[in-house]
Amino acid sequence: MTEPHTAPTPAPAPAPGTAGSRPINAPVPADLLVVGAELVATVDADRREIRGGWVAVTNGLVSGLGGPGDPPPPAVRTLRADGALVTPGLVNTHHHIYQNLTRAYAPALGGTLFTWLSTLYPLWSRLDEEAVHVSAYVGLTELALGGCTTTTDHLYVHPRGGGDLISAEIAAATALGLRFHPTRGSMSLSVKDGGLPPDSVVQDDDEILAESARLVARHHDPSWGAMVRVALAPCSPFSVSPALMRATAELAEKLDVRLHTHLAEDPEEDEYCLAVFGRRPIDQFAEVGWAGDRAWVAHCICPNPAEVARLGAWGTGVAHCPSSNMILGGGLAPVAELRAAGVPVGLGCDGSSSADSASLWLEARTAMLLGRLRHGAAAMSARDALEIATRGGAGCLGRTGEIGELSVGAVGDLVVWPLDGVAYAGALSDPIDAWLRCGPTAARHTVVAGRLVVEDGRPVHPDLPAMLDRHRTLAAGIQRAFDDAGINLAAHPEGGKSSAEASG
């Protein structure tokens, strides 16, 4: 019999014989009880796997786990998980949700990272609060359908007059009930300064730092089980100044929030940093005061072995973005080497304009396949990929033991994954391998803080059809504006100049 793990039962209120309608000393009902699972993969510190297991959630936190021989507590609501795998909610450690407004945009599909960015920056300069709110609603729903319960978002495009974009996406996450880590991104170097973005989407250092502090004061919740936490996130070494990188690190230390940026994403970044700073990207990262466990970085495809060791010694996390890395041709990230060096490695969907989908299940499967391609069949198992998608993400976000695992006191975020139907016929021996090998698949149920966000494969929030209609209108307007103006982005990636402007 599996030893049940349960939270202490609070003492009942004194009453002669009963506490309300409940007898004294009777178990306190859980808010949600998930029962009948084929397997509960806790991904806890002991990596326990419970056949026929159950999970109880009370007040937004896991209050008990057990096996078929352990009597579960009574519950206000019971959710059946028959024939299914139950895992912790998946954690997305890098994303640019607004980019779903320009998903699979044809003029940007054939170039390198720098060409891709230069092509799309002018489109993104049209972002405003409504566009960000609607794109966040749609993007967060997409993530929830793929089993994501906690996601970051790196929003670094802040057009003048666009409004409070971070608050707009937080409002969408709050409405849907997802756990959200928005990062206040920034760009301070435009084309005229030797950077890539147009002038309309960059800000000066003082404005960036003031807005960063304001958003942390307004939205950041440091408490256990928080639904919203804010991090500070200059975009990259080629879009902000070293002075802003240093000042942001100092501000994050003062406010006790985390740091995020892109790093070592592409060979072109190596060339840029050597030419401009006289050092490689990770050396520059250390030079501006970011080396430490407060930071996690996106991609990290190109570190050499010595740099991998330095990242591990610092405790700096890495968001591995396998689909985006392949689509943009960046290369194979050294995931096994990073993990062996002690680097917390999580998964990232990355922007919907590069990865073109937002499924953490797909990213987990792709991470497993790429790991095996790089180092052989034994190098990356389905359990390794699940751990990266859960505990690894928690490590990147500084929330180990709180998110990304099922243990008493951790958040009540979990996913019920179906293991039946044509795709799983014959997959009888190992539910975790079946989950990652036999898809594609989506969640049957996605639960955040004990509340259903996806039920029976459908989002529970009722506004999705109207939001999709509005999203299509907004996306079409952003993309059509440049066509109507006679702008040839493929011919003028440096900033989307019209033919008249280019000739004049």
Write up this protein.
It is a single chain. The chain is of the alpha/beta class and 504 residues long. 34% of the residues lie in helices and 19% in strands. It is built from 15 helices and 22 strands. The chain has a seven-stranded mixed beta sheet, with helices on one face. A five-stranded mixed beta sheet has the order 1-8-7-4-9, with no helix packed on it. Helix 2 runs parallel beside helix 3. The protein is globular, with a radius of gyration of 23 Å. The termini are far apart.
Quaternary structure classification: single chain
- First-last Cα distance: 80 Å
Give the helix proportion (percent range).
25-40%
Low-confidence stretches: 6-20, 489-504
Shape estimate: globular
Could you describe the largest sheet, including whether it forms a barrel? Answer: 7 strands, mixed
The total of beta strands comes to: 22
Mean pLDDT across every amino acid position: 91
In spatial order, strands of the major sheet run: 6-5-10-19-20-21-22
Proportion of strand residues: 15-25%
Round the Cα radius of gyration to an integer and report it: 23 Å
- The structure class reads alpha/beta
- How many helix segments? 15
